[in-house]
Amino acid sequence: MVSFDASDMKKIGLGLTGFGVIFTFVGILLFFDKGFLAMGNILFLSGVTLTIGVKSALQFFMKRQNFKGSVSFGVGFFFVLIGWPMVGMIVETYGFIVLFSGFWPTMAVFLQRLPVVGWVFRQPFVTSFFERNRGRRVPV
Question: How far apart (Å, rounded) are the C-alpha atoms in residues 119 and 36?
Answer without folding.
Answer: 34
